[in-house]
Write a structure and sequence with these properties.
20% strand, 6-stranded mixed beta sheet, 8 helices, alpha/beta
């Protein structure tokens, strides 16, 4: 899906001609151009090594582009900021804090004037939103992988950042927990006012379609180039069983898979 820019403020997140390389190595990203409207959900899809996680780190301000610029609401991103929350695949909870204290750290950044008791109360509320209210006093090692990831999502939501960046957050989970957390994420996103802008990295086509408003596909033949932007013309809220059984979903999945396969074959012919 190609989105025209009407003005500097037309989009929340703008990735303008961005390239990135580590020192003198081959570029990891090549002249990527993307625009993400405020409150929309972008799935960033690609095979391993295509640069999708690197692009997320650039948006988070953890790396700086070699070329081009990234801006949020017209302001260049030059480092990490409270306007961007990040959820990684490895949960990244502090092991010496309880689940409640982990979330309370984010509450303190969003609401520095609250008392300690108020921060803990609000942290418990965020844990309850992801179904963890009863385990607020437990430490990360006492929680399952799915529960730890829910706690990490609660912490990201508690930061109340307008942008949520997610780097394959469900990749290590079993299919049942993965599906549950996908639905939990969509429920949290749909219920927030205003909606957060989400960039979600995945290598799973079904996940990309199910979650996203559109899918940006990074190619493999020329690592780090934007292969396609594909709109997901499926209404919300989405019911998993009905969606996966629909001809529209199957056609969209086939289209994306064919693009990825063709890109891989193109790379093989140049060897």
């Amino acid at each position: 899906m190609t989105l025209a820019l009407d003005s500097a403020d037309a989009f929340g997140l703008r990735i303008d001609d961005v390239s990135f390389a580590y020192s003198d190595d081959e570029p990891v990203l090549r002249r990527v151009v993307l625009s993400v409207p405020e409150g929309r959900f972008l799935s960033l899809l690609g095979p391993s090594g295509s640069g999708k996680s690197t692009l997320l780190r650039l948006i988070a301000g953890l790396e700086k582009p070699t070329r081009g610029r990234i801006a949020w609401k017209g302001v260049d991103i030059v480092g990490p900021g409270i306007d961007r929350a990040v959820v990684f695949q490895n949960y990244s909870l502090f092991p010496w804090y309880t689940a409640q204290m982990n979330v309370a750290l984010a509450v303190a950044k969003a609401h520095p004037d609250l008392t300690r008791a108020q921060r803990l109360e609000l942290a418990r509320d965020y844990l309850a939103r992801v179904g963890l209210g009863e385990v607020a006093a437990k430490f990360p090692f006492q929680l399952s992988g799915g529960m730890q990831q829910r706690a990490a999502i609660a912490r990201a939501l508690a930061l109340e950042a307008p942008v949520l960046l997610m780097d394959e957050p469900f990749g290590a989970l079993d299919p049942v927990n993965r599906g549950r957390l996908q639905d939990l994420l969509l429920d949290a996103w749909n219920s927030s006012a205003p909606r957060r802008t989400i960039v979600f990295v995945t290598h799973d086509i079904d996940e990309a379609i199910y979650l996203g408003d559109w899918v940006a596909v990074l190619g493999a033949s020329q690592k780090g180039h934007l292969l396609a932007e594909i709109e997901v013309p499926l209404t919300r809220p989405r019911q998993r069983a009905e969606l996966f059984a629909s001809s529209e979903f199957r056609q969209l999945r086939e289209d994306i898979a064919e693009r990825l396969d063709a890109d891989v074959l193109s790379g093989l012919t140049t060897i």
